[in-house]
Design a protein that fits this description.
mainly alpha; single chain; 200 residues; two-stranded antiparallel sheet
Length: 200
Amino acid sequence: MTELLFAPAITLWGSPTTWLEIAAVVIALAMVGCNIRQIHWGWPLAIVSSLMYFALFWRSKLYGDSVLQIFFAVVAFWGWFQWLRGRRADGSPLQVSRLTQRGLALTVAACALLWPATGLFLKTYTDTDVPWWDAFPTAVSLVGQFLLGRKYIENWAVWIAVNVVSVALFAYKGLWLTVVLYAVFIALSGVGWRAWKRAL
């Protein structure tokens, strides 16, 4: 079964694209579509997609992004619960909202601390050849996932930053179908931002 998943299905720009990557891309697009429309079924799709990308990224020695997918799969259960049962501090149902000034400052601080810490860990303990660039989407995605789970509109800005860096990173690794996916994610993040802004 593993051999079939990693078997080349097509060749894009000189690099083989596996059946696993194709399936992961399709599921990931469906997931983002659900997120934009605030449909909670995006969270179980995130679990499936994340597990697929764990295997794909590990094979490509993108260890930070690979471990991040396991985090995504686990946190997706939390996000699913938040969208179904989550409440604000005042007890009101969880709806799209904006971060406070303090929340924005904490978001930026979290990204500024997590990126170098993750990069140092990858540089020290793994054989990745792109520790700092692997660390950026890994670290910043942690913040984005929290914001998405709590329905803060700023999550879309975070995903745009993550996706721009990811496009370059995956191109370097020859994961061309995933490059296309993350380029689409950039556009979809803009769509999501506008859709959630209308929902405010």
